[in-house]
Amino acid sequence: MIVCRSKTRLTEATNAFKDNSVPQNRDTGKMDSKAAGMNPYVGLVSSLRDAWLAGKMRTVEQRVSQLEALGRFLDDKKQPILDAVASDMRKPPFEAELSEIILVRNEVNHVLNNLSSWMKDEFVDKNLVTQLDTAFIRKEPYGVVLIIGPWNYPLHLILIPLVGAIAAGNCVLIKPSEISSSTETLVAEVLPTYLDRDCFAVVTGGPEETSQLLENKFDYIFFTGSPRVGKIVMAAAAKHLTPLTLELGGKNPCYVADECDLQNVANRLVWGRCFNAGQTCLAPDYVLCSMEMQEKLLPALRRAITDFFGPNPQESPDFARIISDREFQRIRALLGSGRVAIGGQTDERERYVAPTVLVDVQPSEPAMQEEIFGPILPIVTVGNVDEAIAFINSRERPLAVYVFTSNNKLVHRVLERTSSGGFGGNDAMMQMMLVSLPFGGIGNSGLGLYHGKFSFDTFSHHRACLLRNMGLEAMNALRYPPYTERKMGLVLSTSRIKRSGSCTLL
Ligand code: NAD
Q: How many CA atoms lie within 13 A of 326 on its CB side?
């Protein structure tokens, strides 16, 4: 595995190529392109393509060995991982272990348990003309995949796609977020020592480097980040007709009905909103409820916050910090929307924003116009569930819609009449814990699916294969010119798919 450092560290990276006896064409490609003022990543991408074309990732043994190596990285480097995410955003060890290590380990183990059966050709139904033939779907790797990650779950959101890309047999170039710089360093310096350097590489850097990377032709791009950058990535992919997955963000609404288990609802909302200090794409972004429910919910939310984080959440070891000064300023400005009912304290030095609930928020105010991505929960009052559904449907389609109610019919009503990437009845975020459920957005919240088998399918081209028998030429001749009415009748009778259940009266 190769680590390609951006800009100032380019020479160092070039030396790393040499030190590791990387095949000459890699080095030459990179050096030549740099000298000629060309794209600096040309050589790296082409060396990964060489490895893929040489079939290095084709065998199940190679895929398993790389997945096991990834598992070892997670096991061996648990403490450095916890330290890196603590340094980036003071992510509490419990949250870090769960989100950055355990969930990735589960994904690795799930894939290892199922990979050989997923890789098998899938034989399909045939018609009369193809009875003697073999028809199947082969799951083939795309080739060279680019994975671009965000900073909020900086390891999880590059490693879970990586598991799927390896399972499907691709070579991969990973671009972690430059904002979570401690994790970026760990990924660049330690992960490469575990994986096959011919097939995997890490490139570090920000928008400029990512833009240069995207000028290259990849066979698949997997991007997680904001809708704004998602559009840039999609435009770059379009230039090469490269297929892609976009895992984006948005505002996830939570409708809380008048009949619900109040304290449990408050606990689950506060947990979802405050996990990683609210810097979670699936977090409940705002609450829709009646005025009466708002009055009941506020003391329950206050109690949940105190139970979880004590009287002063700033002193709690279980509450993270905001990733950067820029994000801190953006989130702090949102406190001006509506009225602060709970929390509202900030500490710029620590990039601390207290768990906060806003009330009397207008839909036109900033807190309701942008993804909050911090520990602030606005409440917007609505008259009833129909108004809540209309409110949700008047906005961009979110990554998740949540509904909290003890009325099961109401859960299904909201489910049927709204659209979102995922859906949660009586909880938030927990749908992503199951490897059996797909994870992904729709519309403004993204494009495509992953996790478990869905990742394997995402990173595999489904190649339609028909291996024909040379016999039965008389039947085949029906499709050859000269065309006649009689031939058409026979073609229809051998290949037509009839509507099941339909009955023809003679
Ligand atoms: P971002 O879009 O700013 O950055 C994501 C990646 O794109 C980074 O690696 C960054 O270096 C790169 N990048 C930034 N600007 C670029 C540009 N102009 N050209 C090319 N590349 C560029 O996102 P972020 O701030 O790191 O993450 C927060 C966003 O990600 C939120 O919107 C959140 O909802 C979303 N997100 C979505 C999911 C999901 O699974 N759907 C998960 C986590 C985060």
A: 1
HSE-CB of 292 using CA atoms within 13 angstroms: 6
- Report the alpha-carbon distance of residue 229 to residue 244 in Å, rounded: 14
Distance of CA 291 to the CA centre of its chain: 35
> Which residues sit opposite 33 in a β-bridge?
none
Measured between its terminal Cα atoms, the distance across the chain in Å is 69
Beta-bridged to residue 171, according to DSSP, are 144
Query: Which runs of consecutive H residues, i.e. helices, occur in 261-321?
Result: 262-274, 291-309
Q: Hey, is 256 helix, strand or coil? A: strand
Split at pLDDT 50, 70, 90, the class of 5 is low
Shortest-distance Cα residue to atom 30 of ligand 1: 225
Residue 74 to residue 155: CA distance in whole angstroms: 10
Catalytic option among 95, 100, 247, 327: 247
Look up residue 206 and give its two tokens.
């920000």
Residue 223 bridge partners (DSSP):
148, 246
Q: Is 288 helix (H, G, I), strand (E, B) or coil?
A: strand
Alpha-carbon span 491 to 457, nearest angstrom: 34
Are 171 and 200 in contact by the 8 Å Cβ rule? The answer is: yes
Residue 116: count of CB within 10 angstroms of its CB: 11
Tokens of 275: 């996990």
What top-level class would CATH report for the domain 2-248+453-460? alpha beta
Domain boundaries, the chain: 2-248+453-460, 253-440
CATH code of the region 253-440: 3.40.309.10
112 in contact with ligand 1, CB cutoff 6 A = no
Split at pLDDT 50, 70, 90, the class of 26 is very low
- Two tokens, residue 66: 């790389």
Q: Does the pLDDT value for residue 479 go beyond 80?
A: yes
CA of 82 to the centre of ligand 1 (A): 22
Is the pLDDT confidence value at 147 over 70? yes
Which strand ranges, in their side-by-side order, compose the sheet holding 376-381? Answer: 339-342, 356-359, 376-381, 286-289, 253-256, 400-404, 422-425
> CA angle, corner 61, sides to 59 and 66, nearest 5?
105
The token pair that represents 487 in the structure block: 């031939």
With left for phi above 0 and alpha for psi between -120 and 50, is residue 446 left, alpha or beta?
Answer: left
Ligand 1, pocket-test mutation among 146, 152, 174, 455, most atoms within 8 A of CB = 152
CA gap 234, 245 in Å, rounded: 9
Q: Please indicate whether residue 100, judged by its CB atom, sits closer than 6 Å to ligand 1.
A: no
